[in-house]
Amino acid sequence: MRRNDRTGFFDWSLTWALAFILAASSLVLVAGDAAPDRVPSLVTWTPETIVAASSGDAFRGMLLAKRCDHCHGSEGFSPVTSTPNLAGISALAIWKQLEDFRAHKRRSRAMEPIAESLSARDVEDVVSYYAKLPIYPDPQDNRVFPQGQPSSSRAALASRLVTFGDGDRGIPPCQACHGPVAYKIGVPSLANQNGDYVLDELEGFASGTRANDINQPMRIIAALLSEDERHALAEYYGAGLGLQPAGSTAKK
Length: 252
What we know:
Blueprint: H1 2-34, H2 47-54, H3 58-64, H4 69-72, H5 91-102, H6 111-117, H7 120-132, H8 152-163, H9 174-178, H10 195-207, H11 217-224, H12 227-238
Helix pairs in contact: 3-7, 5-6, 5-7, 8-12, 10-11, 10-12
C-alpha cells in the first residue's frame, strides 16, 4: 500500500513536471515570436541595398530636402547644436538611419513620421543630396558648427580616447570605426557634427534608449565611458577637432 502511495506521488509529480515543461516551452515560443522586436536594425548590407543607398538622384533629393531645411539647415548644417548636421555624411550612413526610423528601430517623435512618409526612392534621393553637399561654409549657411574650443585638459582626454581608446576597459579608439579624421564611408561622420547632438546620442546609447547599432558596439562603448568622457568627446567633435589627426590635439 505504501508502495502504491509512493507510485501515485511520483505519477502526480511527473504530471506537474510535464505541465511545467510545456508551460515553459510555450513561454519560449512566445519569446521567440517577439524576438524581432529586439533586433536592432532590419538593414542588411547586400549588393542590392548598397546600390540602393548609393544611386539616388541628388537633384530630386534637393527638392525633397526642402522640408528638412528648418531643422537641418538649408546647407545641411543645423542652426541648433542638438540637431545633427547632414552635409557630407556618407550616403550609406544616412540611408541606414532613415531605414531604421522607418522601421521604428531608431526612435524619434520627429523623424519616425517623416521617414515613414518617404518612399524607398525618396530615401535614396535625399541621402544622395546630403552626401554631396560641401562641408565648407558659404554666406547663406547659418551653421553653429564649430562650437567653442574645449579646455586643453578635456581636449587631451578626448584625444586619447579617439586615438588609443582604453585597453584596460576594453574601449577601442573612436577612430577605429569613425576614421582618423572622423570620416569613413558607411559610418556616421563626426568630422562636422554638433557637440550637443553627439552628447545626446552617446547618452542614448549608454542608457539603451538608442539601440539601433548592429552587434551593440556603441551601446557597449558608451556605457563604459564616464560622464566626463562623454562630455569631453562631444566637445572635441563639436569644436571641429575631429577634422585634425587626433594625435595633433593631444596635450603636449
